Every structure is written in C-alpha cells, then in structure tokens.
Amino acid sequence: MPEQQSLGRATSGVVGAIRFAFGALTAVALGVQAYHSASEGRSLANFFSYFTILSNCSMTVVLLVGGVLGMAGRRGVPDLLRGAVTLYMAITGIVYAVALAQYEALGTIPWVNDVVHRLMPVVIFIDWLAVPPRRPVRWTQALWWLAFPLLYLPYTLIRGPIVDWYPYPFLDPREKGYGHVVISSLVITLTFLGVGVLLVWAGNLFRERRVVQMAHADKG
C-alpha cells in the first residue's frame, strides 16, 4: 500500500507538471497576442470579448492552478470546473474547424492561432479522459456548464451595436440579419448540449474503468 501511495503521488506530480507546462504555454500565447494586438492599436476590450480568448483564459487558470496543486501532491481543481473549461475549449475547436478556419485571422499570430484553436482543445480533452472525474458527474450538474455561453450570447449582441463590432461572422446581424444569428445560435447551443453529453458520458465511463483497474490492483 505505501508503494501504491508513493506511485500515486509521483503520477500526480507528473500530471501536474504537464498541466502547468501547457497552461504556461497558453498564457504566453495569449500574452503575446494581446501585446501584439495592443501595439497595432486594436482594442483589448474586443480582444477579451472573443469566446476563444475567454475560454483559453479560463482553461489556463485551471491548468496552472491544477498543475501547482498536483506537483504539491494536493487535490486539484474541482472536476465540474475542469469539465466546464473542457466543454468550452471543445466548442472552440469545433466551431473554428467548421466555421472559422476559412476566414483569414487578421492580426493573429499564426503559432498563437494554432495553440488556442487547434492544440489546446485537443490537450484539455485528453486531460479529461486521462484523469477522469473522481466522482460521477450528474446531468443536472453539467447543465451549469451552459451558464457561461448563455451569458456570452446576450453580452455579444448587446455590446455589438454599441461598439459596432462583433467577434464572429455568425453573430453579426449587420449583413444577414438577426434571423441568421438566431439560427446560428440555436445550432451552436445544440452543439454545446451534444458535446456536453459526450463529455459527461466519457468522463463517467473512464472513471468507472479507473475504479475497476484500482480494485484489481488492490487485489493483486
């Protein structure tokens, strides 16, 4: 048993170091892009109004805090918080691949674009599966994950006419009208729900497998 506990602490330290490294990478990417945007005279308020940036910021905090706690041998951030940022980053990756990759990212540094849109959505999803929730995630709990995107939509639509700027073409009513925005929002909402269901199912499935493996290890 002491050997297993030592192995568990060592594994927690390794996972913590990996999380911290990816969190630091994303923090650097966001910082470099924010500085680059500001130096070119672009609004930082607009920069931090992208769902992508807000999702990456929240994920960065979770990874850095979780990394430090893991390396210290302590319990990491709550799994529901991990699940939330995993959902937001998954949607970031999916929406970028499906709807935004075709648009030229004006002023975005290419390697930063790759980090926030391509690399980190995959990394955080793997993290969710590799270190599944300690307790089963209930569907009612996971519904809280939708709070942020549901608040982001009215924020964007209210702020847009005031500053005459929208972060994404599918949320911009100036050319195709609000009907297009409504349809796009419904599609994205359904995508949130679908991906959220997948994350809950996968997290609980991998948790059950981990429990079975630990039970077999204890018997051995």
- Domain module tally: 1
Largest sheet: none
Tally of DSSP β-strands? 0
Unreliable residue stretches: 1-7
Q: What is the overall number of helices?
A: 8
Helix content: over 70%
Q: Name the average pLDDT.
A: 91
What is the N-to-C order of secondary-structure elements (H for helix, E for strand)?
A: HHHHHHHH
Taken from the alpha-carbon principal axes, the silhouette is globular
Alpha carbon gyration radius? 19 Å
Helix- and strand-based class?
mainly alpha
Assembly form of the protein = single chain
**Straight-line N-to-C gap:** 11 Å
Strand content: under 5%
Report on this model:
It is a single chain. By secondary structure, the chain is mostly helical. It has one domain. It has 8 helices and no strands. Helix 1 (2-39) packs antiparallel against helix 3, helix 4 (79-100) crosses helix 5 and helix 4 packs across helix 8 (173-219). The radius of gyration is 19 Å and the shape is globular. The protein starts with a helix and ends with a helix. Mean pLDDT is 91; it is low at 1-7.
For this entry, give a set of tags.
220 residues, mainly alpha, 8 helices, globular
In short:
This protein has 220 residues and is mainly α. It is built from eight helices and no strands. It has one domain (2-219).
Topology:
Elements: H1 2-39, H2 44-47, H3 51-71, H4 79-100, H5 110-130, H6 139-142, H7 147-163, H8 173-219
Helix pairs in contact: 1-3, 1-5, 3-4, 3-5, 4-5, 4-8
